[in-house]
Each structure stands twice: as C-alpha cells, then as structure tokens.
UniProtKB/TrEMBL annotation:
Xref: PANTHER family: GENERAL SECRETION PATHWAY PROTEIN A-RELATED, PHOSPHORIBULOKINASE _ URIDINE KINASE FAMILY
Domain of life: Bacteria
InterPro entries, per the entry: ExeA_AAA_ATPase_DNA-bind, P-loop_NTPase
The organism of origin for this protein: Thermodesulforhabdus norvegica
Record protein name field: ATPase
Amino acid sequence: MYSSFYKLKAKPFQLSPDPKFFFNSGVHKRALSYLRYGLEQGEGFIVVTGAPGTGKT
C-alpha cells in the first residue's frame, strides 16, 4: 500500500534488514563507536537496547 503511494521501487520494511537502506545518522555513529570501543577493550558483553523500530538491527 505505502509502496505505490510513495512510488517506491523496493520494499524497505522487510523482516530481514537490507543494508542498502541503512541511514548512518549521528546516533548510529555514536552507538557504533561505543560498540567498537567495547570490542577493542575486550569487554565480555555489549548490549544494544531500545524501543522497537529504533534501528538496533
């Protein structure tokens, strides 16, 4: 329904995320830097939390 209304050529809202639709916002960049830091420091667990639809995947 929204595909025809917005004249989309692809379906951006599938169950499996497609990286071609990723938008690298400032919030995403900051979260990624925290994840990288945790990995570089050898942290045991790194958890990303947030409400549904906030881009955790």
